[in-house]
Amino acid sequence: MxxxxxxxxxxxxxxxxxxxLLGLSTTAEQVYRAMLAHPDDGVARLxxxxxxxxxxxxxxxxxxxxxxxxxxxxxxxHELCAVSPEVGMEVLLARQQAELAAHQQRIxxxxxxxxxxxxxxxxxxxxxxxxxxxxxxGLDQIRDRLVALTRDVRxxxxxxxxxxxxxxxxxxxxxPLNRELLDxxxxxxxxxxxxxxxxxxxxxxxxxxxxxxxxxxxxPSLPTRLIIVDRSTAVIPVxxxxxxxGAMVLTGQGTLTALCALFESMWAGSxxxxxxxxxxxxxxxxxxxxxxxxxxxxxxxxxxAKRLGVSPRTARRIAGDLMERLNARSRxxxxxxxxxxxxLPPHP
Length: 348
What we know:
Elements: H1 2-12, H2 26-37, H3 43-50, H4 54-66, E1 70-72, E2 80-82, H5 85-124, E3 133-136, H6 139-152, E4 156-161, H7 168-183, E5 187-193, H8 200-211, E6 215-219, E7 226-229, E8 233-237, E9 247-250, H9 253-268, E10 271-272, H10 286-296, H11 301-308, H12 312-325, H13 331-340
Parallel strand pairs: 4-5, 5-6
Antiparallel strand pairs: 1-2, 3-9, 4-7, 6-10, 7-8, 8-9
């Protein structure tokens, strides 16, 4: 942090390595600035002007090429020219934003994984060994405990609802209790998957919740099913792929703090149910961007489908469309080209 602060202060006061804040080395920045100021210089003249060796110039050009700050010259064969700062800085900023978003996603996934590890460990521990953990062994126990928790709620219910479209039976059965809570002034915030927007019945249910005072938003994917009551009790499945396998009721302060932070982070990147889908700077919908990240992480069509709340056939169609747009013949190649185009951040 001290080093970063010193760099910021240096840049603020007009230091020469301003672009190091955007990922360039000092040498690469010098070469980029020289190419902008002297567009006719070749490698030898750049080296002489900057006092750098041919190898240093070529290494800097390789870095600039990877960052899309230089391109082949249209006027001189086998030569490179600097991309204008207006375009180049937008590329660097977009890349940093993508890296930040990917880092945040890794933090969110880590929080969910940590909570489930706690749940799995507690499940195997002797009864009473962890007073802040309660194991629920089946769907009947889970449903009974959820009813008891929601009836006793005082101020707030936060929920992740993965799995795509909800069944009409479940939605209809939940409305009386939801109405009771909302009438009592309880705050309700629920995150569904973007895919529910294709289900008229689920959208109608979400609109009904909003009309009665709840907040409903959607995200491309969710790490697990989760319910948090009054920021003091959380219910999370032992197995995120099979919520019927059992669940844990968690009340430990550290665990609840992490899970509430996970919810708020996902909520900050979500869209209200009534807001139409928009495309990002690369022309991707939120669902396509989520699918691309899962694809690059090496997940199967089946897991991508589950995370997005769509059928495996739809997941394959989305993946195929992305590969076609990237002109990629394999998923590996798609990941490489997505990074090159700035659609995904480089792997750390």
